Structure formats: C-alpha cells, structure tokens
Amino acid sequence: MAAVAAVVSIGGRPSWSVRGARIALVVAAVTVLAWLLVLPLLAIFAEAFRQGVAFFLDAIRQPDTLAAVRLTLTVAAIAVPVNLVFGLAAAWAMTHFHFRGKALLGALIDLPFSVSPVVAGMMLILVFGKYGWFGSWLEAHGWQVIFALPGLVLATVFVTLPFVARELIPLMQAQGSEQEEAALTLGANGWQIFFRVTLPRVRWALLYGVLLCNARAMGEFGAVYVVSGHLRGLTNTLPLQVDQLYEENFSAAFAVASLLALLTLVTLGVKRVLEWRHGEVLHADH
Amino acid sequence: MGIEISRLRRQFGSFIALDDVSLDIADGEFVAVLGPSGSGKTSLLRILAGLDQPDLGSVQRDGQDLLALDARRRGVGLVFQHYALFPHMTVAQNVAFGLRVRPWRLRPKASAIKASVEALLHRVELDAFASRYPAQLSGGQRQRVALARALAIEPRLLLLDEPFGALDAQVRVNLRRWLREFHRSLGITTLFVTHDQDEALEMADRVVVMNRGRIEQIGTPEQIYHQPATAFVSRFIARGQPLPGEVAGSSLHVLGHAWQLDGFSSTDIHTVAVHVRPEHIVPATRHGEGLAACLLSLRHVAGTVRAGLQVEGMDEPLEAEWSERDWSRHSVGVGEPIDVHFQSLSVFGMDREGRVRARTDCHPPYSASPIAIGPWRRLGA
C-alpha cells in the first residue's frame, strides 16, 4: 500500500525506491495478463489452424456449424435492438423523471449481472417450459418457447439487459436535462428533442453499449445452454456448438471457437477506437 | 397590459420555493429579480418558461392564461446560466434550431431561416463565428449565441438566468453594458435573475428583491437602494449592518445614546432592527463628539477606503467606507482609537410574524462645524 501511495502522490522525478515499485507493479500486471489472457487466446488460434487451413475451412463449412452461425446472428439481431430500445428508455426514465420505485428499477437493471446465467435459464423454463406457469397455455396455442428460438432470444435478452442502460445512465446523469429544456422552450416536440438533442449527445456511449451487448449476446453460454435443448443444426448457437464439438472433434471445436475469439478481438478493437476518438464524450459531461 | 403574475406558490416537499409571489411586468420593461441562492428566483423563472408548474396562482399575458400554454408554445425565450448550447451543432445550427423544429406549415423556407440566422448573428456581433462549434468559443461568445438562439423564435418575453454568472469580471462588465444597450434597441420584455446587486441595480428598470420565496421589495434601483423596505433588503442591497438598539416611546436608544425618532409608530411592534451603512459611519471631527471605537483594519479599494471598526459596547466589528480624499485628512493608524459618528440609521419595526410594520430613517444630530480641519488626531489617547 505504501508503495502504491508513493507512486501516486509523488510528482516530478521519482526516487529509486519509487521507480523500483513502479517497475515491479507493471511487470506483475503484464505477466498475469499474458498468462491468463494473451496466451490462451493465441492457443485457440494455434489449435484451430494446427491441421492446416483446409481443415479449418472444412470445420467451419459443416452444415451444423453454419446453422449455428445463422442462429447466433439471428438471436443477436433480435436481442440487441430490443435491449437498445429498452436501455434508452430505461436510461431516459432513470435520469429525467422522479417516480416511485426508481431505486427498484435501478436494482432490477443490475439483476442480470448478479444472477447466475444458469439460474436465468431455469427461471425461463419455470415460466415458459412445458410444465411451467404458461406452458400448457402456450402449447394449446401451438407456440414453443423453450427448446426453440423464442427461448434463446428471451434468455439472451435477459442476460444482456444491463449493458446499454448501464452505459447510458451515468453519462445522461452527468449531462443533466438543461439542453432538453432549452430545446423545449425553443418549440421542439418530444421526438425532435430525442433525435436532435439527446441521441447525438449519447451516440458514442450508445454504440459502445451496443457493442458490449452484442459481444455478450453472441457469446452467452449458460442461460442459453439451459433453454436450448442442444438440437444440432436447430437450436445450437455457436458457443453450444463449440461445446458439443469439443466432445467429438477437438480441432474442429477450436476452429469454431476461433470464430468467437475473432468476434472478441473485433469488439475490443472497435471499442479501443471509440475510446480513443470519443473518450471525452463517452464518460465525462460536456 | 404586459404580464401579470399573481399569488404564485410552489412547494418542493417541505421547502417553500415561492410563497405568494405577485408581480406585474409592463411591456418592454427590463426587470431584475435579485436574491441570494434558494430565494426562489430560479423557480419563478422556470414557471414563467413553462418548465415547472406552480401549486397555486396564475400568470396572465395580455389577459391570456400563460400557464395553460405548453412550454413549446409559450413564446418565451430562455437563456440558461450555463448556456445549454447544443455541442454537436455549429453556432448557426444552434441559432436556427427554434425555426427548424417548427411544424412544416409554420416553418420558414431554408433561405429565410439562413437569412434570419445571419441577421441575428450580426446583431450579437458573431458574424464570423457561424460555422464554429460552441466548444471553440469563449464564455462571453457562448452567452451571445444562447441569446441569439432564444431570440430566433421571436419571443414576447425573454428570460435570462444569471446571465453573467459564469463569466469573469472584465467580460461581465462589458457584456452588462452591451446587454443594456441591446435591450434598449430591441424593446423586448425581459426578466433576468441574479444574485449580484451591482448587476441588478446597474441594469434594470425595476428590481424585485426576493428572499426565502417571498418578494421583499419591488422598486426602481434608486428606491431599492435609498429606501430599503425591509431589514433584509437593507442588509443585502445597502450593506446595512445591525446595531444593538431599541425604541422607547419616540426615542431611539443605541449604544448609550438616545435620539429623537420621527414617523415611527411603535404599536404592534415585536422586534426592532437598527441598521447603519458603511458610508454612513464617518470619523468624528473632534474628540468626544461621537462613539469611541478602535480602527482594526484599513484596506484601499479603487478610490475608497474600507475600515474595520470595533465600536465600544459592540461584539461584532463594523465596516465603514470612506473616500480616499476624505480619509487623507485623517492620520489614524491601524490599532489606534478613533471616534465615529453615525450620519444616518435605518430603523425597522417588525411584528411577531417578522413582517415590517414601520420603518424610518434617523439622522442623529451632530454639532460639529461642517468644515473639518485636518490633519486630525485624537488627543489624550
């Protein structure tokens, strides 16, 4: 603790002991990151291409894998816009209105972060499953939720619920509502205020939130595992496909996993660019 | 006609922001609402702009109920203390906003919008800045953009919230003069809110002094300054300093002196406040003429001398203000005794609820010759 305090508080030319502490801390952090994050990530790509590029392409071109890619994209294409709208609405409500139960709403938004994804999946089965509360009603109307696309989407929406809202709320809180009020006195209506004043001010934070939301939506395993039923080519998303392949074909599993890892890298890259170009508007008030 | 505000009340929980506030504003008038923070002046402004609704009371404009109109249809221009410019729009886009968001039937043509934006930017002397962003402007320039943006909708009432609050002293003084001239050339009814008495007294046709949600006094700057209606106005505007004093019959007793008090009816009076202004505490010309005091401090500020005085019999020191020229005839140093004389005292009599029931000025008689001879030094000290 003393070393950390010294590094933080002393300006100008640091003394030898301070410099030593700084080097030690940096080395420790880089070592941990390298062992826990960088090496495993490299290992995935190494394993994926170990039997050659042709094998890699073959593994990916399997019909079941392609179906999993399609399903993952479909689920994300529904879940992300839903959470985009929900996040904007929740953030707006939390920052512009005073109402009863505001604290409760804030806690509920955070709930998916604190609930284990497996429990989230189980809850969906309890409610929509065959022997769940709405199960017989849904079955009578010919709708299948669990072990089908709707269940996957619900599970994904639940798990990724906080991402957009949590990104927007602090920013909108810091910005206050003066500009919206100014727009109102200038004669703008609600939609004009939203699209011309509010949205442009939060657009980068919104994009950032959507990016994180999307990465999680495509990579979610636990909740989706419970409600999917693992029907190969039908209800297997990419992470589930990786899990199944892992039992049978080690290298093919890594080839498919490398697709997910690639998604991570792309997300990280775009996130970094966003932070670099719009760092001030992402977090600080204007 | 103009605007008639009557009996407004606004309460937030147990905090009363506005308490029975009534005010008439004539067409074209320039009115300042002056008060410390928390006095309710911003609440009044927000209600007039339509950003808040009062619990009780009414606001009429030319006989029309203003409160029934939504903020966006009120035709009220509001300039925020921190400008609230749209950071992602250029200066020209900011100014054009109010015209561009009109329903298409009422929206001017693009060329007409461009022309009026140019005209407005010319008015506020920012022609060359049309394509800049707010972040690239100084505080004073942003203030003028906010003003132009509010004026673009041709408001019938202009509201300014602490218009100079966020600016540094030099810019503030220049912009004050500029805004006064601007109002004169425009003639638009304007209400501005400030906590700075210099600003209010220098700029406004009329000043409304507010405290704790109530209007303490409405009057011209001269009236407010020379005849403060309440002890609060006296303290806040004229820097009146409380003296220990009481009224018995028709005489005022202060620090062992008794003076005749005219025009002060003491019925219903519960408490009495006696105030003296810094400029009304003058050095006595002869020893033994006034009240004994000790000179605690001396500061020279822009042509005046501010002296801290410990008057015998008082706990709190008093501040006196003299011109450099007058003070140059005296040669009392800090820490030395000095005799002072009160030229004028303001006396306020309040009832049990704290309402002022009687007020008058007292001019203690002073026998010294009008021509002071100096340099003067108290003898036998």
UniProtKB/TrEMBL annotation, chain A:
SUPFAM superfamilies: MetI-like (SSF161098). The chain crosses the membrane at residues 23-46, 66-92, 104-129, 141-165, 205-230, 250-270. InterPro entries: CysW_permease, MetI-like, MetI-like_sf, Sulph_transpt2. Keywords: Membrane, Sulfate transport, Transmembrane, Transmembrane helix, Transport. It is found in: Cell membrane. PROSITE patterns: ABC_TM1. Coiled coil: none annotated. The keyword Acetylation does not apply. Part of the ABC transporter complex CysAWTP (TC 3.A.1.6.1) involved in sulfate/thiosulfate import. Probably responsible for the translocation of the substrate across the membrane. PANTHER family: SULFATE TRANSPORT SYSTEM PERMEASE PROTEIN (PTHR30406), SULFATE TRANSPORT SYSTEM PERMEASE PROTEIN CYSW (PTHR30406:SF1). This is Sulfate ABC transporter permease subunit CysW. It comes from Dyella flava. The gene is cysW.
From TrEMBL, chain B:
Residues 3-237 form the ABC transporter domain. Keywords: ATP-binding, Nucleotide-binding, Sulfate transport, Translocase, Transport. One of its GO terms (molecular function) is ATP binding. InterPro entries: AAA+_ATPase (IPR003593), ABC_SmlMolc_Importer (IPR050093), ABC_transporter-like_ATP-bd (IPR003439), ABC_transporter-like_CS (IPR017871), P-loop_NTPase (IPR027417), Sulph_transpt1 (IPR005666). PANTHER family: SPERMIDINE/PUTRESCINE IMPORT ATP-BINDING PROTEIN POTA, SPERMIDINE_PUTRESCINE IMPORT ATP-BINDING PROTEIN POTA. This is Sulfate ABC transporter ATP-binding protein. It comes from Dyella flava. The lineage of its organism: Bacteria, Pseudomonadati, Pseudomonadota, Gammaproteobacteria, Lysobacterales.
